[in-house]
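Our preliminary data section would be incomplete without showing what the modeling component actually yields. Below, a chain of 281 amino acids is followed by its predicted structure, encoded as tokens that our downstream tools consume directly.
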Amino acid sequence: MHFNDEVDWPQVFLGYISRPSLADPHNPRRSVYVSTMVFLEGGLREIDDQLSGRNSRSRDELAGARLTRDIVLRRAREIAAEVPEEVHVGAGAFRDRWPGRGGMANFFMCLMKYTCTAPRWGLFLDYGPRRALAELPMVQSGERELTDLIARIATHDLRMRTRLARYWLFQLSLTIDAKWRSVATKAYREMLEAYSTRWAPVYEEGLQLLGVKFRPGVTPSQLSSMVSALTSGFAQHIAGTGEDSRESRDQFVASVQALIFAALDPGDGDDIAGALRAILR
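Predicted structure:
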């Protein structure tokens, strides 16, 4: 099992785990690190199963106890059987990492950060930029329409971002505690910023390949953030209402295409507001 050792877990979990060494993949007693990751993977799998409907417990039971320490311990014991190291994942080991009355709140924060850096989400974040960079030369040569490329990547991103939104909506519903809500919101914002950062170089490459430029004042970073915000808004709506229809997806794709094309300079050197002022004069 791969726990993403490239992440500086002691730094990521700083302030939320009792001792940094418990989250250090370079700890000479590696089983300590593995145990920590098993607890977090257990929480993540439980959420996966509840969201997908694979959980064996009834909805009534889950409504009262969505993610308790006992549930995490049970899932951790199941996962511990899959790793080659001998690890301890009992209640004592859990309290050692997340002690005191705020233990579950701190575990929740670590779970948010673990989810943000999970390889499955890294693949999702990299898919769109990687696909765009690979196919932009085909747009340049005329083999593919830019609108088609935008549509397919935007549809995929919306689907994955909707799944991500369901994670956060679910986790926010665990409690109305203001501390936990701010924790989840901050982690979600970090994820969106990582998404935006990956797209800025793609827009820069696209401008060069297609021989176009943005309107005055528009930058690749700004456009990336705007598209990310638009995608997030649609995803949150779909996750919250369940209205995942072909019509809503088509509306989203049209909105993304319009946003990107509106950012391009048609050659007059004016932005839309400037052009309107000229017309009115």
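The mean pLDDT is 82. Residues 178-210 form the longest helix (33 residues). Preliminary results of this kind motivate Aim 1 of the renewal.
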